Amino acid sequence: MRKKILFLFALTLFNFLQAQQLDPLQAKDTEAQNVWVDSIMKSMTIDEKLGQLFMIQAYSNRDQKHKAYINDMITRYHIGNLIFMQGTPEKHVVLNNSYQEKAKIPLLIGFDGEWGLDMRLKNSFRFPWNMTLGAVPDNTLIKETGQRIGEHCKRVGIHMNFAPVVDINTNPDNPIIGNRSFGENKENVTEKAVAFTEGMQGAGVLASAKHFPGHGDTATDSHAVLPTVNFSEERLDSIELYPYKKAIDKGVASIMVAHLSLPQLEKNADLPSSLSKTIVTDLLKEKLGYKGLVLTDGLNMKGAANYNTSAAINLAAIEAGNDILLIPSDVPGTLKLFKASLLNGKLTEDRINESVRKILKAKYLVGLHNYTAISTDSLQKDLHRVEDKLLHRKLVRNSITVVKDSVKNIPITHLEDKKIAYVGLGDAKGNDFLAMLRNYAKVDKVSSKYLKTLVQKLKKYNRVIVGFHKSNKHPWKSYKFSKKDLTWLHEIAKESNVILCDFASPYSLLKVDEANIETIVVGYQNSKIAQELTAQALFGAFKVKGKLPVSINNFKEGTGIETSKLNVLQYTIPEEAGVSSDKLEVIDKRIDTILKKRMAPGGQILAARNGKVFYYKTFGYHTLAKKRKVKKSDIYDLASLTKILASLPMVMKAEEERKLSLFSSVGDLLPRYSKSNKDTLLLKEILSHYGRLRAWIPFYLHTQDEETGENSLELYKKKWSKDFSIKVANNLYLARSYKDSIFKEIVDSEQRSRPGYKYSDLGYYMIKEIIERKYKKPLNILTDQLFYSSLGANRTTYLPLKKFRKSEIVPTEKDSYYRKQLVHGFVHDMGAAMIGGVGGHAGLFSNANDVAKIMQMYLQKGEYGGVRYLQPETLAKFNKRYYADRKVRRGLGFDKPQIRPEVKATCGCVSEESFGHSGFTGTYTWADPESGIVYVFLSNRVYPTMRNRGLVRSNMRTKIQEDLQNAILMESAPISYTEESIED
């Protein structure tokens, strides 16, 4: 008997302790919490207690009349809680502080911020919707989301956020939940709801699981009517109630009760669940043992408001067991009814005290016993932190889901074989998607007013990317395909290899016949980030890992094809690349200086770290006339960057294929030099600029009259003919035969008397000829076929006017000495122009993005996008100084950091393993294996004339290089800058 008594005592004690642990409103300092709550309770009148039961709407975008109304409710009716609605963070904080000053007992501030403050407050941060989060496999990211949202709430004085939605959306036609749900799988929904709750409550903000007992399988909106959930108790227990049980076990601070009709639980089918004692008290509080705050959904919603008078509804809600009346109507009338009910015994003060005590415990839990006003300082900065942006990107990247890929379309590779079109469907824009696609490959936007015409136009493409774009304004916006869009999609898919990218709810796919669609990718939302990251995913910038959170036709919930990552550039924010945004701001100031001092009319700057582009900006205009702004797609004359971006990769490839050797002599490689003073000159010496060659020869001067400076009429014509076929500028054609004269002049030229370093273009005339002899093709064709096409460097070319509109090409110089015109679309270098525009030393045009691809390929030891272009040992061989003992800083083709202190190629802050080159027209690129940085600077500093040397004298290109190095996070200290000069 004694043992039995001891057992029962132990069991009772265990149950008591367990009950204590399950009280989500209990603070760690329980005794202090009880003391504070007791002291407040003892001092309160019944009017003040009744006031604690109300949470009324407050707006920060309304006038003084509204503010006076809220103040009156606080002072006259002792309202204890506010839910803030639309407004701005700044006004919200000001009003919040003002209302708190009016309150005798600090106000508990509630908020609907399911995806962050953006749900109600303008100019605040927006995280993805729950349906998007439902696709994310890693729940630690969901927990972090809850934490970040909690921190934002806390920053503006919000104590309770009505999130997460834990409804299991098993009904695709649900008009009000849908995208607000984590999906249809109870385990996935529950795990994410718990993770979100733990994160938010860990930040000190109370979570609220909603909408009890489950709003996921309804086809009507409780804002408008009373929806019916007519399922058996067994079904409700196993599906709808499942996440609540787990959330309760994990300590969710509050639960919001929905306005639903549940005939299996509540006999009165007209009675909303929020007003049902059977559901609120018997089920939630007693059967499920919930001890946290219970509040109604908004009592202004028709699902509740249609039931009775406002006062009667409010009373019924309290009688049902709710603690807080959310957005009640007719507060004065309700208070009168409450007092009358207290007098007639229908309502007891004990019942009121029960809820008030819980509300006060919640207030203590969120720190209102030590209330301090909220600061407005740095508010926007605190609400748009780098950590938030990084998390947002992680969430979207991890949510992207490949539902189908029957022909292995993604990641898209072998770009040399791809002809890609983009077709936009839907009623929203896909500009960000298309722009990002174009960072990777040539993608044509194809459209037509007529379906038949569009289908015909698409026949020349072997990949058609269809973007379905719907409004991203809020999750209730229509996500469905129009009949026209469905028809057009299906007809396009019959004739083309389609990659459908769906930037809307996955439910939008329900009406899509996927039989003829090869690939389906779900991006979930049409945000800028979703568009950009989905485009990157198509080209293998990262692994795709998302899982479908709901079932769509033949694709079951959990479907998600994982794709492989290719080593291609990613495009992101600085911190994701380990770089400080704040420290990069100095570059913007340098750009201002460049423009103000007219060092160049404009330009492009790109910087990547470890393959992640973190800075990519254009600045200024094509010319000082300021008529055409520089675009990212515009191409510049690269000048001597041609040496390492065109000639050098071909030399390295030829050396790998044993078509030549670094120890090959010019005499052996080119017969015309066999009896010249250059016959023993080694390829290694040419590439190191150690061949005793002259720096350059002004060939054009030899085609001009010595006295007048005019071009020889015997050598130049204004119109093309078979004999005058070398176009050096508009309406200026050089005699075809003169090319031989140029090569003869190089053969016959004197060499410098003493060996040593001398930067020379002449060796690259030889290199071009060597390459073309070995491969029996022109250099421009070779580089495009073997490198640029498959790299996706479709903006890189010789002879740009053959591929691009003139408006896409940035001009160089107003030439007054040779071509007597603005050099626009033709190579600036006179010698390169005179041999047809394709030089080994100059002639290449490109944009910053393409240059970065080639430099990244070098940095990745010859591999890019899953293609091996060069062997690692080849890159190592060429990125090496062979005459360092003779003070030659150059590698083979590559420029290297300075050796002589008086002549510098870099900022002096890069590693010895780094390499790059500079160009006469105002270009520069550098890659550093140690820091992982690829840097590209393109400009037309020679405009209006080459005498414009401000960019060179100021060392602006290498100052920016130093800025980039100094911006790397975890750097112990910035590197001091010393004046330097760049040799072009």
Walk me through what this model shows.
The protein has 984 residues and is of the alpha/beta class. 36% of the residues lie in helices and 12% in strands. The chain is built from 33 helices and 29 strands. The strands form 8 sheets. A 6-stranded mixed β-sheet has the order 9-14-13-12-10-11, sandwiched between helices. A 6-stranded mixed β-sheet has the order 15-17-16-29-28-27, sandwiched between helices. A 5-stranded parallel β-sheet has the order 4-3-2-1-8. A hairpin with a 5-residue loop joins β22 and β23. α2 packs across α15, α22 packs antiparallel against α33 (956-966) and α23 crosses α28 (779-791). The longest helix has 20 residues, at 2-21. The chain is elongated. The chain starts with a helix and ends in an 18-residue tail after the last helix. The model is unreliable at 3-21 and 972-984 (pLDDT under 50).
Features:
six-stranded mixed sheet, 33 helices, disordered N terminus, alpha/beta, 29 strands, disordered C terminus, 984 residues
Q: Radius of gyration, rounded?
A: 36 Å
Oligomer: single chain
Q: What's the helix count?
A: 33
> Helix amount, in percent?
25-40%
Outline the biggest β-sheet.
6 strands, mixed
Return residue spans where pLDDT drops below 50 for at least 5 consecutive residues: 3-21, 972-984
Shape: elongated
Spatial strand order of the main sheet: 9-14-13-12-10-11
Distance between the termini: 100 Å
User: Would you tell me the structural class of the helices and strands?
Assistant: alpha/beta
DSSP strand count: 29
Percent of residues in beta strands: 5-15%
Round the mean pLDDT to the nearest integer and report it.
94
